[in-house]
């Protein structure tokens, strides 16, 4: 049996799953003290189901903690940056273009050291071990333990970054080291930025992940703890402590993965309706499509894997702006009203009209239209059928435009409607073959966490003249499969979920950047029988 | 004219548009310019009128693979080494530099070198847009020599190219750029002040900056960035006609690498499914056909832009499903002369098609 928990800004959701079935679930307000919140949620599903903590095979948690820390500039570590790329890149020192306040928080020490590879794999310059040692000693003496190492073309060959890390550890054993090759792809500045942000989160990541572990221990769950990653795969607690940025976009991913699992559909558009926004994403083979655009995190351009999500300002708490004098109108001008983008968010339960408040929201409209039955109709205003229809038509258009923007082909696609506000999505939408509301749609995100798989992604630049295309893809896929097995994947369930080839212009020999992503179900821990694996 | 931080951002936006899908994303060039701005203050750009006829003017820019340029970053010495060696060869100081091409990242390239050498950048360039090869520069079209030309790289290597044949020069420079790792700095077509005045495409830095400023300002006011951009393009006098040729979604994309070029075709469909556009590219966008009829062709500018933000999308970043507008603009008149079209017209890119100006076809979508 597996537990999935999603700690969102508003709610903490948890599910207990066995053999692909949801045995118990809960949705609770997120507490200020996360450790207690997670423990309460897990305790609730265990007591509902009467399952003993000893029967749990894994706990997977998705969290938005780290992205908030970067946006709010709090609890960030000082970072030492070791760049292995000289003589290249000296004109563009690390943190160029960063917001000043963030640079001050990170108080970086940068070392531009010889190293790096050329695109064809040659060393651009050999590693200067003495210079590296001297830098490590300076950082140690300065009390800087969070260290980011970036080497030119390391996504193609990570060997030099690993060698440098080993040398740094010799003279600075307390260092926590981020390797850029573990995070990002080609695009030096974005990858280095990602590595520095990751290093800045070192202390916070350790604290948060350990508080999750304590929460599990407090209720007697001794199963392995995992943190879900941006791409829908798992990080062990140790990996998540080391690479927190890889878990920052897991919320939308978990919703999409959960929706795919609950509906049995691998290719669809997912609409996750929360209190403030509807997150729209595209599933392909059960995994979210990745964003092709550099993600801007806290004002810094990064390139780690993030799901491609379109957030539109329409959720269950979204405000409806219409002059009350027009509530009974028999004609309504398009310009006379506006829906959102502001939302009551968690204040819906106090200020929404169906809860006795004074603010008209989309949930009130759903109640008036007879779509939902929660709250009380007593406090709701009387809207003419024209007005109600006009408001609903606007919401429909917003949703339809969103679906259209995320679709990749012209034909009609199925939509999976999930999240607490999924009632806002009508049963028929333009360009949509059918709207499916899977069972347990309101906790799809926690389901996504519970079912997360082991995964790996490998990227190489290969000359299709030197190596046959099929052989090249197989070579990269093999490297990815090996990594998945190292990450705890079950060899019987290995599956390639994505192959991407990007031809590179102005290079000889038909050079192509090949990227392959492989996943597998998690092997059950040896102490638990295989029959318990979900 | 001094270019400050905001003007650098504007220039990058405008240069990306003038890249016509090629020339590389100017993001890294922008960062480099901003880093230098922090160190030395705003960049000086002067008009050609201020220049003596016997001045020495040097076009420069980067040659190589965009993918490498985002991983093997500049050392900073490349342009300086090349320009200093040229001074030795010519036996005199360089008075000003210009971008070899305004389109894409090379539109910003000379700013850094100029600041380091303490000389101005002239408000002009050699292509008026981006082209895939060096001999497509107006200076070759007008019969000037590319040499002496100097290629340098981040590791400090320097190659001097001397040949009377500008096509051979392009081939040598291309091969050298691969040999040094896929990205190099190229100093080429050294000009006298008189030659720069007679042959360079005047006012393109100002034009790119104005186009970028128009997009930025419209975005800030939540106005239509496309309308603002077209007005700015027309106001430059260099790009007198501009408009939207298609509005839709990418439904198919084919590409392959051929002789080092990224060659392919992207298909758009309108949102109602009634109309489609095929856009051919060879690094830059070359030819657009709407419902089977040609609507624009090289050397006129053809750029795919995000339909909401008006961000230019380079051919390498075109993806299935993107919602975009295909925008066309008339090329500077100098590129439409008969002799110029032999080098940069549709036949130069293998089309059995005479050049027809974009405004003559007049296939603009109604705003």
TrEMBL record, chain A:
It comes from the Bacteria. Residues 2-170 form the Hydantoinase/oxoprolinase N-terminal domain. It comes from Novosphingobium guangzhouense. This is Hydantoinase subunit beta. The lineage of its organism: Bacteria, Pseudomonadati, Pseudomonadota, Alphaproteobacteria, Sphingomonadales. One of its GO terms (molecular function) is hydrolase activity. Residues 191-370 form the Hydantoinase A/oxoprolinase domain. Signal peptide: none annotated. InterPro entries: ATPase_NBD (IPR043129), Hydant_A_N (IPR008040), Hydantoinase_A (IPR002821), Oxoprolinase-like (IPR045079).
From TrEMBL, chain B:
It comes from the Bacteria. Transmembrane segments: none annotated. Residues 165-358 form the S-Me-THD-like C-terminal domain. Residues 7-162 form the S-Me-THD N-terminal domain. Coiled coil: none annotated. InterPro entries: S-Me-THD-like_C, S-Me-THD_C_sf, S-Me-THD_N, S-Me-THD_N_sf. This is DUF917 domain-containing protein.
């Amino acid at each position: 049996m597996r537990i999935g928990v999603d700690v969102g800004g508003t709610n903490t959701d948890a599910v207990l799953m066995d053999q692909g079935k949801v045995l118990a679930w809960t949705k609770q307000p997120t507490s200020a003290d996360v450790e207690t919140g997670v423990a309460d949620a897990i305790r609730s599903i265990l007591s509902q189901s009467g399952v003993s903590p000893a029967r749990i095979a894994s706990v997977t948690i998705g969290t938005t903690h780290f992205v908030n820390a970067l946006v709010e500039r709090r609890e960030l570590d000082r970072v030492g940056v070791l760049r292995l790329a000289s003589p290249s890149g000296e004109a563009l020192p690390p943190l160029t273009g960063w917001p000043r306040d963030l640079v001050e928080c990170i108080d970086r020490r940068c070392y531009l050291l010889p190293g790096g590879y050329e695109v064809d794999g040659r060393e651009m310059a050999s590693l200067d071990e003495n210079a590296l040692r001297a830098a490590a000693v300076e950082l140690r003496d300065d009390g800087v333990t969070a260290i980011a190492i970036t080497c030119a073309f390391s996504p193609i060959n990570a060997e030099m970054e690993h060698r440098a890390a080993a040398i740094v550890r010799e003279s600075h054993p307390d260092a926590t080291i981020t390797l850029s090759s573990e995070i990002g792809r080609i695009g030096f500045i974005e990858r280095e930025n990602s590595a520095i942000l990751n290093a800045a989160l070192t202390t916070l990541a350790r604290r948060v992940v350990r508080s999750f572990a304590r929460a599990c221990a407090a209720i007697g769950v001794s199963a392995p703890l995992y943190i879900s990653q941006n791409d829908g795969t798992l990080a062990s607690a140790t990996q998540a402590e080391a690479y927190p940025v890889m878990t920052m976009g897991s919320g939308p991913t978990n919703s999409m993965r959960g929706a795919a699992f609950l509906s049995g559909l691998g290719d669809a558009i997912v609409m996750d309706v929360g209190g403030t926004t509807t997150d729209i994403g595209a599933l392909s083979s059960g995994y979210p499509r990745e964003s092709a655009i550099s993600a801007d995190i806290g004002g810094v351009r990064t390139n780690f894997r993030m799901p491609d999500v379109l957030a539109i300002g329409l959720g269950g708490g979204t405000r409806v702006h219409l002059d009350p004098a027009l509530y009974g109108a028999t004609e309504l001008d398009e310009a006379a009203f506006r829906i959102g983008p502001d939302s009551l968010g968690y204040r819906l339960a106090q200020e929404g009209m169906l809860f006795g408040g004074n603010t008209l929201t989309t949930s009130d409209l759903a109640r008036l239209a007879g779509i939902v039955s929660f709250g009380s109709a007593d406090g709701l205003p009387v809207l003419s059928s024209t007005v109600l229809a006009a408001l609903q038509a606007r919401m429909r258009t917003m949703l339809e435009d969103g679906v259209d923007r995320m679709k990749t082909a012209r034909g009609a696609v199925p939509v999976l409607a999930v999240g607490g506000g999924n009632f806002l999505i009508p049963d028929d939408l333009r360009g949509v073959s059918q709207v499916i509301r899977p069972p347990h749609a309101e906790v799809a995100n926690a389901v996504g966490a519970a079912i997360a798989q082991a995964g790996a992604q490998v990227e190489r630049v290969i000359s299709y003249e030197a190596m046959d295309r099929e052989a090249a893809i197989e070579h990269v896929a093999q490297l990815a499969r090996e990594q998945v097995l190292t990450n705890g994947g079950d060899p019987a369930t290995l599956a390639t979920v994505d192959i991407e080839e990007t031809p590179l212009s102005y290079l000889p020999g038909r050079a192509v950047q090949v990227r392959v992503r492989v996943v597998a179900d998690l092997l059950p821990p040896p102490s638990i029988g295989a029959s318990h694996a979900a | 004219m001094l270019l400050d931080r905001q003007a650098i951002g504007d220039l990058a936006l405008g240069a990306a548009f003038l890249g016509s899908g090629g020339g590389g994303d100017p993001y890294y060039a922008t960062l480099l310019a901003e880093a230098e701005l922090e160190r030395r203050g705003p960049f000086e750009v002067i008009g050609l009128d201020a220049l003596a006829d016997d001045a020495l003017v040097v076009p420069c820019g980067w040659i190589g693979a965009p993918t490498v340029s985002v991983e093997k970053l500049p050392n900073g010495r490349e342009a300086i080494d090349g320009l200093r060696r040229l001074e030795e060869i010519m036996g005199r100081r360089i008075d000003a530099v210009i971008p070899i091409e305004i389109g894409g990242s090379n539109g910003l390239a000379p700013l850094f070198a100029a600041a380091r050498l303490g000389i101005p950048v002239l408000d002009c360039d050699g292509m008026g847009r981006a082209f895939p090869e060096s001999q497509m520069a107006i200076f070759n079209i007008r019969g000037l020599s590319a040499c002496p030309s100097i290629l340098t790289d981040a590791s400090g290597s320097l190659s001097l190219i001397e040949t009377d044949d500008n096509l051979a020069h392009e081939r040598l420079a291309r091969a050298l750029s691969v040999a040094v790792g896929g990205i190099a700095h190229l100093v080429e077509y050294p000009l006298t002040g008189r030659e720069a005045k007679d042959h360079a495409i005047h006012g393109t830095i100002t034009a790119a900056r104005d186009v970028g400023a128009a997009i930025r300002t419209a975005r800030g006011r939540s106005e239509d960035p496309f309308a603002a951009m077209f007005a700015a393009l027309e106001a430059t006098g260099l790009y007198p006609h501009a408009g939207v040729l298609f509005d839709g979604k990418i439904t198919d994309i084919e590409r392959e690498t051929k002789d080092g070029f990224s060659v392919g075709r992207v298909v758009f469909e309108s949102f109602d499914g009634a109309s489609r556009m095929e856009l051919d590219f060879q690094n830059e966008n070359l030819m657009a056909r709407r419902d089977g009829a040609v609507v624009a062709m090289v050397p006129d500018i053809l750029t795919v832009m995000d339909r909401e933000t008006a961000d230019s999308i380079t051919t390498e970043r075109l993806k299935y499903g993107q919602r975009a507008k295909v925008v066309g603009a008339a090329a500077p008149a100098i590129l439409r002369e008969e002799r110029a079209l032999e080098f940069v017209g549709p036949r130069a890119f293998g089309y059995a098609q005479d050049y027809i100006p974009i405004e003559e076809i007049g296939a603009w979508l109604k705003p």
